[in-house]
Amino acid sequence: MALLELVMQGFALIGFILFFVLWLMHLMSIIYVRLHLHKKRSEVKQPFAQLAGVSLLKPLKGIDPNLISNLETFFTLDYPKYEILLCIQDQHDPAVDVCKKLLGKYPKVDARLFIGGKKVGINPKINNLMPGYEGARYDLVWICDSGISVKPDTLTDMTNQMTEKVGLVHGLPYVADRQGFAATLEQVYFGTSHPRSYISANVTGIKCVTGMSCLMRKDVLDQAGGLVAFAQYIAEDYFMAKAIADRGWKFSMATQVALQNSGSYSIGQFQSRMIRWTKLRINMLPGTVLEPVSECFLASLIIGWAAHYVFRWDMMVFFMCHCLAWFLSDYIQLTGVQGGPLCFSKLDFAVAWFIRESMAVQIFLSALWDPTISWRTGRYRLRCGGTAEEILDV
């Protein structure tokens, strides 16, 4: 009995530690969002004309309804010196015609189209980008996904963050206002759960970066072996960031979000994407197996049991109150990440939030069940440490 009591006390302590850590994450992310995001800098860190030249690497595959409008925002950037390097693997890809149309519409923009890629590893994005990377003329490279939309001053904001000791500038992933419940679900996730982990990790010194929009020093990447060195990984963004951090460089987050604006989206696509990301994290970082306890419902149950065991509080009442507090803090954070009025109602938010939280454990279990992922046109078997092998059809 004494041993059982000791074990119960240990679990209760874990519950209270979990409570402290999770609410510290809530506070850090909410405060950071309010103080840092969407802020116009009163001082200009560098004279506009002296901003460093940037080579924009744009990996493209296929088209969606928003591709041309997203790409066009890069042709209209207000920046003194940059080049656009459009990279497409297949010469028959319909994105080729979209690129040629924009090249013809903006002849004064320094832009080039690279077709064919270069096979250097299993990562299709790296293979696609290789010719563009080898042809880049500037010291800063900006790798930015095809579904991202930018403002005219986005690149200026990012280069202003690239101070003397910074080697990588990244944008907090978020989602543009779009129509439909699937869009609301994505927006709620990228405005609540994702930034809570993403921001609190970066604030506490943990290098957490997604490759949707990253500005990096090319010479530092070259010291690590160039893009070729990361072609063996599917999550190349994590390992590029790690290589830069290992060489003593700091990271900085842009004040503008990395605005995803894909024209093709659904609940199924969102779920598949979350499962793929979870599989990658599990294989790169074994501690990811603890992720489910950071989700609202499971965390509330654990903390509620601890409160019941120590204070004899009603567990279900505590569970409901804790979930309500979590729900309200998530709404506060979402409005901060949005930086303006939301395009959906509070009821829509409540429904999307509940469904997203309910999906969390199922997504995690699905990721554990199958170690293979499908990405772009290939299927890959993940290995511990982040490497992978392509599964070829016989």
Query: What integer value in Å does the Rg equal?
Result: 22 Å
Order of helices and strands: HEHEHEHEEHEEHHEHHEEHHHHEEE
In round numbers, the mean pLDDT is 93
How are strands sequenced across the largest beta sheet? 3-2-1-4-8-6-9
**For this entry, what is the oligomeric state of its chains?**
single chain
Based on secondary structure, the structural category is: alpha/beta
Number of strands: 13
Portion in helices: 40-55%
Distance between the ends: 59 Å
Q: Give the low-pLDDT segments.
A: none
Helices, by number, come to: 13
What's the story with the biggest beta sheet? 7 strands, mixed
State the gist of this model.
The chain is an alpha/beta fold and 394 residues long.
Which helices and strands appear, and what pairs or packs with what?
Blueprint: H1 2-36, E1 54-60, H2 67-75, E2 82-88, H3 95-105, E3 111-115, H4 124-135, E4 140-144, E5 148-149, H5 154-161, E6 166-170, E7 173-175, H6 181-191, H7 193-203, E8 213-217, H8 218-223, H9 236-246, E9 250-253, E10 258-260, H10 267-284, H11 296-311, H12 315-338, H13 346-369, E11 372-375, E12 378-382, E13 388-390
